[in-house]
Every structure is written in C-alpha cells, then in structure tokens.
Design a protein that fits this description.
By secondary structure, the protein is α+β, with helices and mostly antiparallel strands. It has one domain (19-177): Aminopeptidase. Helix content is 21%, strand content 34%. The chain has 3 helices and 8 strands, in the order βαβββαβαβββ. It has helices at residues 28-45, 110-124, 139-144; strands at residues 19-24, 62-70, 73-85, 92-100, 129-135, 147-155, 158-165, 180-183. An 8-stranded mixed beta sheet has the order 6-7-5-4-3-2-1-8, with helices on both faces. A hairpin with a 2-residue loop joins β2 (62-70) and β3 (73-85).
Length: 189
C-alpha cells in the first residue's frame, strides 16, 4: 500500500467556513436543524429542559437561522433564535431560544447578528416594543447591542433579565429571507 499519497482533501482539519448567512428559516431542513440545535444547547448542554424545549410558542413563532456557507452554499445550521408577536396588532414582539453551536460562538458575531435580524425583521412588521428574557450571563452582550434591562426574573430555575431593544438602533429589515451575511473572523473574546 502506498502511504505517500496526498490526502484527498487539502483543507486544514480546523477548517471554518468563510461566511455565514443569517436569515428567516424557510426550508424544512433549516427548521428541523434549528430545533436539533436548540435541543443540543438547552437540553444536552445547559440542562434547562429534560428532553425537548418545544412549547406552544413554536406553533406561531418564526425561526431564524445562522447557516455556515461553503462556496456560497449553505452547509449547516450553526445558530438560531425565534420571534413572535405577542398579540395580533399590539406591536409587542418577543425573541427567545437564542442558541449558537458551541464551536461557532466566537465566529462571525453570530449571536449578535441573529439578534439584529430578529429585531429588524420584527420592526419591519409593525413591532414597536421588542422584548426578551435573557439569561443573566448574556446581559452584557445585549446591553452592548442597545438593549436595556427592565427587571430581574427567574425562568426555568435560572436567573434571567427581562430586556427591551432600543428600536432606534434597529432599522426595519424588509427582506429577512435574504437576511445578513457575516464573515468567519473570530469575534473579540
């Protein structure tokens, strides 16, 4: 057997995609993979839920995804969040279940870009108040993105903060299916 042959792929083993597309999920595979990622983060990693994190909100929520791209083509779902209107026509929207695959948490500001599309796309659909229950350890991230804390709360036995986005920093995005592209440059720690 000839062991001097070149490997079939010259990509480094620590390969990271060069770009990510953050958009509204519009395909079955994107929604299924977003739910798989949520289970991995909220059930397996954080143990917030025992078997699944699906709830009644999922029936009316719009999932958003961060897709790793290779050659401009989507490869896998590496981040997700969901948004929904609280009541029809009252202008209050919520974001929840923000999750990014552990391997990609330092790449491309994926969490921040998911938050940005969540708020800007809701803003384009009549949102005048955007709220989220944020895990306490993520408060500083949201504050750096122009959110303010309204009150401390406990959800699912964990410290959370009810936070509100400053919509002046989130101009409406009318094309959430196209969404945003971010590069794979490592984010500052």
């Amino acid at each position: 057997m000839d062991t001097t042959r070149t490997p079939w792929c010259e990509l480094p083993t620590a390969f990271a995609p060069c770009e990510f597309r953050v958009k509204w999920a519009d395909g079955g595979w994107e929604i299924n993979e977003a739910r798989r990622l949520r289970r991995a983060v909220f059930c397996d990693e954080q143990h917030v839920f025992e078997h699944d994190d699906l709830d009644a909100i999922d029936a009316r929520a719009q999932p958003l995804v961060a897709l790793s791209c290779v050659g401009g083509m989507p490869e896998q779902v590496v981040g997700t969040v969901r948004i929904h209107a609280a009541e029809e026509g009252d202008g209050v929207w919520w974001g929840s279940r923000l999750a990014v695959q552990a391997r990609y948490r330092k790449f491309g500001r994926l969490g921040a870009t998911l938050i940005r599309l969540a708020v800007t796309s809701a803003h384009a659909r009549g949102c005048n108040v955007f709220l989220a229950h944020v895990q306490q350890q993520n408060r500083a991230l949201f504050e750096s993105l122009h959110w303010r804390a309204l009150r401390d709360e406990s959800l699912h036995g964990r410290a959370h903060v009810l936070m509100q986005a400053d919509l002046a920093h989130y101009p409406p995005c009318h094309d959430p299916l196209t969404g945003f592209v971010t590069s794979s440059a490592r984010a500052a720690a």
